[in-house]
Amino acid sequence: MIWIELIIAGLFETLWATTMKYSQGFTKIGFTVLTVIGMILSFYFLSRATKILPLSIAYPIWTGIGAVGSIIIGVILFQDRLSPLTWMFVGLLVVSIIGIKLTNT
């Protein structure tokens, strides 16, 4: 269950990063509120995960999920263009996240 909470924390990190972009520098109140709610929920679920998981495991997985999620959202919603080399490094990031999870004892 704790791993699910950590994944949820990472997904909320992606949410708040996305809504922060939509808030246009916190000038759009609805997206600003969603950003703050996403931040609170992301930190809440991360704090729950770090009660059981070591910080050295939970934090890089949380940030990795948020980073990869933000990249995917950027490409889909904001038409960000990434080079093939950048995609290779995104793939390495995904492999690293999985590796950290699999090697956690």
UniProtKB/TrEMBL annotation:
Pfam families: Multi_Drug_Res. GO terms for molecular function: transmembrane transporter activity. One of its GO terms (cellular component) is plasma membrane. The keyword RNA-binding does not apply. SUPFAM superfamilies: Multidrug resistance efflux transporter EmrE. Its main location: membrane. It comes from the Bacteria. It is a multi-pass membrane protein. It is found in: Cell membrane. Keywords: Cell membrane, Membrane, Transmembrane, Transmembrane helix, Transport. The chain crosses the membrane at residues 29-47, 59-79, 85-103. Belongs to the drug/metabolite transporter (DMT) superfamily. Small multidrug resistance (SMR) (TC 2.A.7.1) family. This is Quaternary ammonium compound-resistance protein SugE. It comes from Pediococcus ethanolidurans.
